[in-house]
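Budget justification aside, the reviewers requested a transparent look at the raw inputs and outputs of the sequence design task funded under Objective 1. We therefore reproduce one unedited record. The lines immediately below are the structure tokens for a 311-residue chain.
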């Protein structure tokens, strides 16, 4: 791949102002360009889908026209294994490397192991705990438990204390899950009652089941905040409704057919449930990751102790 066209001191391209380049046949406007190793023409990166950040990775570039004439194909250098690095790997170094620098190799493996800031002793313990490269790569998923039954039992005892610190978070998440389950059930019952009352009113008014609009169906208890709704659920009325699995009667329901006040209430309620479900899932995942991290940290400490005893 060649460097871009030569420019004058003022930044304008040398040669005729009418010189046209690229598949777009437009002049060099200063945008990043790449030179074809087949026809020696120049191409705007954005026109041929090559980004400036990829410049160092291009080995040889052949434009679409030259590729169509079978003059060659674009070849690429191997990229540094670190995902965020756009530079080529040092494959011609001695020894060859999958990374552009040793520092990026270290950064890559740190990103693969979820426990941050390993000490040299911990790294040595982890390396000694696996038998091959495949085992080392799996350290990104979990740290192996020590072989000693006594050591594993000690870890479980230590984890009881560690996990106790997470109890408030877990209990809060359980309460949120319980509220979510209760609200979901109530919204479904409100939706069922909307249909039932609509059918009852149609029958009372001798209206056809098809063609006439449904009632609004909004249940006033849906407007309660979490605390008030929880109190209502514990009331005699609330308990009776949840035990029966249905909301009877027509109390606390909006029977208007054109209701601007509660418009789209069901869609909004379902969207709120989807959001809450996602938040619960994310919160539970955070707690699970913290528990996993604590377990792996204790495993690592125990492996270090085993290493020291074997010396």
């Amino acid at each position: 791949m060649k460097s871009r066209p030569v420019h004058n001191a003022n930044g304008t391209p040398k040669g005729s102002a009418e010189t046209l380049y690229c598949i777009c046949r437009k002049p060099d406007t200063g945008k990043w360009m790449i030179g074809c190793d087949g026809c020696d023409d120049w191409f705007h990166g954005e026109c041929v889908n090559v980004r400036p950040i990829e410049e160092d990775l291009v080995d040889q570039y052949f434009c679409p026209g030259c590729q169509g004439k079978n003059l060659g194909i674009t070849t690429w250098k191997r990229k540094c294994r670190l995902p965020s690095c756009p530079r080529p790997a040092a494959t011609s170094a001695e020894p060859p490397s999958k990374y552009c620098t040793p520092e990026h190799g270290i950064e890559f493996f740190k990103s693969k192991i979820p426990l941050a800031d390993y000490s040299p002793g911990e790294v040595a313990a982890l390396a000694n705990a696996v038998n091959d490269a495949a085992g080392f790569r799996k350290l990104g998923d979990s740290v192996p438990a020590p072989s000693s039954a006594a050591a594993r039992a000690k870890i479980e005892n230590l984890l009881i204390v560690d996990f106790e610190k997470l109890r408030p978070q877990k209990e809060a998440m359980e309460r949120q899950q319980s509220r979510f389950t209760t609200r979901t059930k109530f919204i479904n019952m409100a939706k069922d009652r909307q249909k039932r009352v609509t059918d009852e009113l149609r029958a009372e008014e001798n209206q056809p089941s098809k063609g006439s609009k449904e009632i609004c169906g909004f249940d006033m208890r849906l407007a309660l905040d979490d605390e008030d709704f929880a109190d209502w659920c514990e009331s005699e009325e609330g308990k009776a409704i949840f035990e029966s699995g249905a909301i009877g009667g027509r109390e606390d329901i909006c029977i208007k057919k054109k209701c601007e006040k509660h418009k789209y209430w069901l869609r909004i309620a379902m969207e709120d449930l989807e959001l809450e479900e996602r938040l619960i899932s994310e919160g539970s995942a955070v707690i699970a990751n913290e528990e996993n991290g604590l377990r792996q940290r204790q495993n690592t400490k125990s492996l270090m102790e085993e290493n020291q005893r074997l010396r």
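Residues 36 and 63 are 6 Å apart (CA to CA). DSSP finds nine helices and four strands in the chain. Computational costs for records of this kind are itemized in the attached budget.
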